[in-house]
Design a protein that fits this description.
Elements (H helix, E strand, L loop, with lengths): L1 H23 L7 E5 L6 H8 L3 H8 L12 E5 L20 E4 L6 H8 L3 H8 L12 E4 L10 H24 L17 H10 L9 H4 L4 E2 L10 E4 L8 E7 L2 E6 L4 E6 L3 H6 E6 L2
Antiparallel strand pairs: 1-2, 3-4, 5-10, 6-7, 6-10, 7-8, 8-9
Helix pairs in contact: 6-7
Length: 287
């Protein structure tokens, strides 16, 4: 009997450390989560829902073309919250912790953001705006971070600003993939474009809806001085002699990309081009 107890005790002595190790060893988790692409998903929508930057998803998945996603494709979402669904709501700042703004005639999300010093993305998230391009006069908006009890952190603000920069990158990279696509009046892709059909399609990649008309697009967003153009701004021209009739996207380096009716394809043209410089009218910022 003593031998049996000794044997059992000896076996337990060897087993117990293994059991303890197994119980206390850290799980082999990473900060990454896997997201399965669904119909209608875009990289910008996924990044917004997961509260990570577009570039971090592109880098983590080594995406050669971030504008092409396949239904069922598995994407690594670095550092994402696993319970956030694309298309779901980003937690808003409680109304009690923020000031409010009443929308007036002529207001846009961009102009409100500029006047209040709060990023457009923060205002959109705090108010759960499905379409930030549609505001109603008298609408009450929550302004996150406008008093001492606000819960929006500086890191969250930086994240939203990073996402805006990433949107511009995606916008311009996608536009450049369409270089050489033939021009056709009234077309909005994917095989042919006219000028406003081109800008409408490109901006739709980052969730911004524009009308299929250069004249109507010139009424969206905020006016921008030519000397203050930044990549992603829309630039407008009077090529018909009857008002705004052409639109393109400023891409930096004093150039813009557009569907040219004269060259019959999508091209990049210097802003200083003699023809377009003489016909330049205005620019609008919708991002």
């Amino acid at each position: 009997m003593r031998k049996l107890i000794t044997i059992v005790t000896t076996i337990c002595a060897f087993c117990l450390p293994v059991y303890c190790y197994a119980a206390t060893a850290p799980a082999t988790e990473t900060a990454n989560n896997i997201y399965v692409v669904k119909s209608g998903d875009t990289l910008s929508a996924i990044a917004k829902a997961k509260q990570v930057s577009i570039q971090s998803i592109v880098s983590a998945n080594k995406l050669s073309n971030p504008n092409v996603l396949n239904i069922g494709q598995n994407l690594i979402i670095p550092g994402a919250a696993s319970d956030t669904e694309v298309g779901g709501e980003v937690p808003a700042v409680p109304e009690t912790s923020a000031e409010k703004y009443i929308v007036k005639s002529g207001d846009t999300i961009t102009s409100i953001a500029r006047s209040t010093g709060i990023t457009a993305n923060l205002i959109i998230s705090a108010n759960k705006l499905a379409d930030p391009n549609k505001l109603s006069i008298g609408q009450v908006l929550v302004l996150p971070g406008r008093n001492s009890t606000a819960v929006v952190s500086r890191s969250e603000q930086r994240q939203h600003e990073t996402n805006s920069q990433d949107q511009v990158t995606v916008l311009i990279e996608y536009a450049k993939t369409l270089l050489g696509t033939p021009y056709s009046y009234g077309s909005s892709g994917p095989n042919y474009f006219d000028c406003s059909g081109f800008t409408m399609t490109v901006f739709s990649q980052i969730g911004i809806e524009l009308p299929h008309s250069s004249s109507l697009q010139s009424k969206k967003g905020d006016s921008v001085e030519k000397s203050r153009l930044v990549p992603g701004d829309l630039v407008f021209f009077n090529t018909s002699g009857k008002g705004i009739s052409h639109v393109g996207i400023y891409i930096g380096d004093s150039s813009f990309i557009h569907a040219s009716s004269t060259q019959r394809k999508v091209v990049i043209t210097p802003m200083a081009d003699k023809y377009f410089a003489a016909r330049y009218v205005t620019a609008r910022r919708v991002l």
